[in-house]
Write a structure and sequence with these properties.
Elements lengths: L8 H6 L6 H18 L15 H21 L4 H6 L4 E4 L2 E4 L8 E2 L2 E2 H10 L10
Antiparallel strand pairs: 1-2, 3-4
Length: 132
């Protein structure tokens, strides 16, 4: 179970993923590398295919799908690569272009903010005591 991916290409495609199959495996693995620590490796010893909480499974797999598509569009699938490719200003032959935002403004610790919203909804990010 430890080496089993959380998302198959078929499920990814069903969830609206747009990356081609040859690119999927690396991007899925990189997405898991940033999401697993955040969800406290919940599916490390629990099989995602037998988890009875279908909403949680859908939310986690949708978050991975969103992360894959975001990093594919960005051309960087790890936080390291994202930082290296974060360009806010370019200057060529005396002409310069600067922007106030970059793709990294849409991430938190390398995780696409929209994917993060799905993970919040899954309940796997909660670390405290519920208030009554």
């Amino acid at each position: 179970m430890i080496n089993k991916p959380l998302l198959t290409f078929e499920k990814y495609h069903d969830l609206g993923g747009t990356v081609s199959e040859p690119d999927f495996e690396k991007l899925e693995s990189d997405a898991e590398d940033v999401i697993n620590p955040l969800i406290n490796f919940f599916y490390l010893h629990k099989d995602i295919d037998t988890d009875k909480d279908e909403e949680r499974v859908w939310l986690v797999q949708k978050a991975i799908t969103l992360q894959i598509d975001f990093t594919s569009r960005l051309g960087s699938s790890t936080p390291d690569e994202m930082t290296k490719n974060d360009v806010k200003s370019v200057s060529i032959d005396g002409t310069s272009v600067s922007t106030d935002t970059s793709p990294l403004d849409s991430t938190t610790d390398g995780i696409y903010n929209v994917a993060l919203e799905y993970l919040y909804r899954s309940g796997l990010l909660f670390r405290g005591v519920p208030s009554c």
